[in-house]
């Protein structure tokens, strides 16, 4: 000690520099995982084992937040087949599961949401879908922030207020978006034969998209009011029993399928359809995106996978 304090000033300075270097290195490593990180944190393996059974003891680290960290949703939103699936999952989490996420999972949630908004601003697609997601999240946060002091949110309240301000900014950006018309002046939808136009309209699964399409041109307005079109839309989303309970007659004494559709969606959930979903292996209980390799011991792993809806995914982690 005497030698260190009195003689080896040079060594003393080197020791302090070494200590400061170690502290700085640890701080940089910590910053990769704290709230300043702008990338999603996930493990190298992009799958997660889900314990069979719904008890708190058996779940262990197999939580919704852990799954959200490891399943690489940042890359999934870039895939058009998975985009709507991820958005629906974000909406369900915003409604009821936000407080069940860990701090890093909540940060990942906000980072992914920011990437979703930026993608929509660039592509000018799915604007209404993201508006509804942001409004749902903002409403939930308003309720949770009012309960500050009851351990319902992870982190400082000022951080959540800042996030709410970001949501308001994103909403303003979406409201100010201007749809640019394509420079291509070739064949348009209205140039196609009526049977093809009607066939394309039948591919739309959301009645609001059908109404918006009818407002684009007078010719499309006539087709968008087709009774058979709205009838098929009702039969696609709802059962015969649900339809019989919500019958509406028009002035001509016929079933008004358009009004029935909008009444039905207020009473019953619509059928969800996605191009690609998360899958659960029934043999080894591993959850992953389709096409992701996982250590399955089954002879034919492809036959063991079952698709999960966003709600079924969340239900896996309830106990």
UniProtKB/TrEMBL annotation:
One of its GO terms (cellular component) is nucleus. GO terms for biological process: protein ubiquitination. Pathway: Protein modification; protein ubiquitination. It comes from the Eukaryota. Keywords: Cytoplasm, Nucleus, Ubl conjugation pathway. The keyword Chloroplast does not apply. Part of the SCF (SKP1-CUL1-F-box) E3 ubiquitin-protein ligase complex SCF(FBXO32) formed of CUL1, SKP1, RBX1 and FBXO32. This is F-box only protein 32. It comes from Notiomystis cincta.
């Amino acid at each position: 000690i005497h030698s260190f304090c009195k003689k080896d000033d040079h060594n003393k300075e080197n020791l302090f520099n070494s200590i400061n270097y170690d502290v700085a290195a640890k701080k940089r490593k910590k910053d990769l995982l704290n709230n300043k990180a702008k990338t999603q944190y996930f493990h190298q393996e992009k799958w997660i084992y889900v314990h069979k059974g719904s008890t708190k003891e058996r779940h262990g680290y197999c939580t919704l937040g852990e799954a959200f960290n490891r399943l690489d949703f940042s890359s999934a939103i870039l895939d058009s087949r998975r985009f709507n699936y991820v958005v629906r999952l974000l909406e369900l989490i915003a409604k009821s599961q936000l407080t069940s996420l860990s701090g890093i999972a909540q940060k990942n949630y906000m980072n992914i949401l920011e990437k979703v908004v930026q993608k929509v601003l660039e592509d000018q697609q799915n604007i209404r879908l993201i508006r509804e997601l942001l409004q749902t999240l903002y409403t939930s946060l308003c309720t949770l922030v009012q309960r500050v002091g009851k351990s319902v949110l992870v982190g400082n309240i000022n951080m959540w207020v800042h996030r709410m301000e970001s949501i308001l900014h994103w909403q303003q950006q979406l409201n100010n978006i201007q749809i640019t018309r394509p420079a291509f002046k070739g064949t348009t939808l209205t140039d196609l034969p009526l049977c093809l136009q009607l066939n394309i309209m039948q591919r739309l699964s959301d009645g609001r998209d059908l109404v918006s399409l009818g407002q684009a041109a007078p010719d499309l307005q006539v087709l968008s009011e087709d009774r058979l079109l709205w009838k098929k839309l009702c039969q696609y989303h709802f059962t015969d029993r649900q339809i019989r309970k919500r019958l509406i007659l028009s002035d001509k004494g016929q079933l008004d399928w358009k009004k029935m559709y909008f009444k039905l969606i207020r009473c019953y959930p619509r059928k969800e359809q996605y191009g690609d979903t998360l899958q659960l292996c029934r043999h080894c209980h591993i959850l992953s995106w389709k096409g992701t390799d996982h250590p399955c011991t089954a002879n034919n792993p492809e036959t063991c996978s079952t698709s999960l809806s966003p709600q079924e995914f969340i239900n896996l982690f309830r106990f």
